[in-house]
Design brief:
heterodimer, B: alpha+beta, 40% helix, globular
Chain lengths: 63, 260
């Protein structure tokens, strides 16, 4: 009977943790299903400030 | 009363497993209504606890493996310009050199604008490119660009606790989108491949579903159940200049002055 009680207590302690782990895995699998594959043309972006623009121009010239 | 051990175990297991079963049986509500429960980017915070390590998230694991595999190629290029495989990779090498001389917020601006000029490509498969792939080809889509900015800023010394690749829903375009969130002191910036560099507070049209960094995966909209892939059709405006102009016309301002 002691063994039975011990086993029951262990199950009661461990099972919620296992269930939580399963729940997290299920949730992660659903998030992984979000597919960000929108086909879009060249982005325009916005103009950088003058200093950044100058640095980008210098980088663009480098080879 | 005598209770057989097997019976007790079955009862306990059934009771403790019930929440999982219930979660699986939950019916996914309409995307548009559920996404209203997802937080706006304006309230994005870096402070919550992740729900899982990044190593549990398959797209990240695959990207990280590719990143490691490509490190040798990138390392050769960084050590010797002549070893850079493409002109674009040599330019990226120069970006790192220049950015290393700048203060943090100017690093944000340079890295952001450099990767925003890459050619946007569609993907026949959904995979996240490595920094080397994106930098060498100067091609990618929104999550590739966000990841390239993330990896570049990490190389420049930004801590992972201050960077997050964010996956969310663009309420304007009714489309999934990815961008990078960066924290500098108290300020949170959005580095978006469409709208430019903004403070998060100036980014009201996006809802955050999850975010990821090497420190973990954050579930920002636990009530939202993504639909199956087959039902998740892309409806975005293909003409990005028109799209950006429309967003600007609706009051979503450019990046001018947002770094201050």
């Amino acid at each position: 009977m002691k063994k039975l009680v011990f086993a029951s207590v262990m199950v009661a302690i461990a099972a919620p943790a296992l269930a939580q782990g399963d729940k997290e895995q299920t949730r992660l699998a659903k998030l992984e299903e979000i597919v960000v594959t929108a086909e879009k043309a060249q982005p325009t972006g916005y103009q950088p400030d003058a200093k950044t623009a100058a640095l980008l121009a210098e980088i663009e010239k480098s080879k | 009363m005598t209770v057989r051990p097997g019976t007790l175990f079955v009862v306990l297991a059934a009771l403790t497993a019930a929440p999982v079963g219930m979660a699986q049986e939950a019916v996914a509500p309409e995307k548009s209504s559920v996404l209203k429960t997802a937080p706006r980017m304006a309230s994005f915070a870096f402070t919550s606890a992740p729900i899982a390590p990044a190593s549990d998230f398959a797209p990240w694991v695959a990207q990280d493996a590719q990143e490691s595999a490509d490190d040798v190629r990138l390392g050769r290029c960084l050590a010797d310009k002549e070893q850079c495989e493409t002109v674009d990779l040599a330019r990226f090498r120069r970006v790192l050199e220049v950015a290393a001389t700048l203060p943090p917020r100017e690093q944000l601006g340079l890295v952001h604008h450099y990767f925003n000029k890459v050619t946007w490509t569609s993907e026949s498969r959904d995979s996240w490119s490595s920094l080397t792939q994106t930098a060498a080809q100067s091609r990618g889509d929104c999550e590739d660009i966000a990841l390239a900015k993330y990896r570049t800023l990490r190389r420049l010394g930004w801590g992972p606790e201050n960077l997050r690749v964010v996956i969310g829903w663009d309420n304007e375009e009714k489309d999934w989108h990815a961008w990078l969130a960066a924290r500098d002191g108290e300020a949170v910036f959005v580095l978006d491949s469409i709208l430019g560099l903004q403070r998060a507070s100036a980014y009201p049209h996006a809802r955050v579903v999850y975010s990821i960094s090497e420190l973990g995966v954050w579930d920002h909209a636990p009530d939202y159940v993504p639909p199956d892939r087959a039902g998740d059709q892309v409806t975005a405006e293909a003409d990005v200049p028109k799209r950006a102009a429309r967003l600007a016309a609706n009051g979503y301002v450019s990046n001018k002055g947002n770094l201050k």
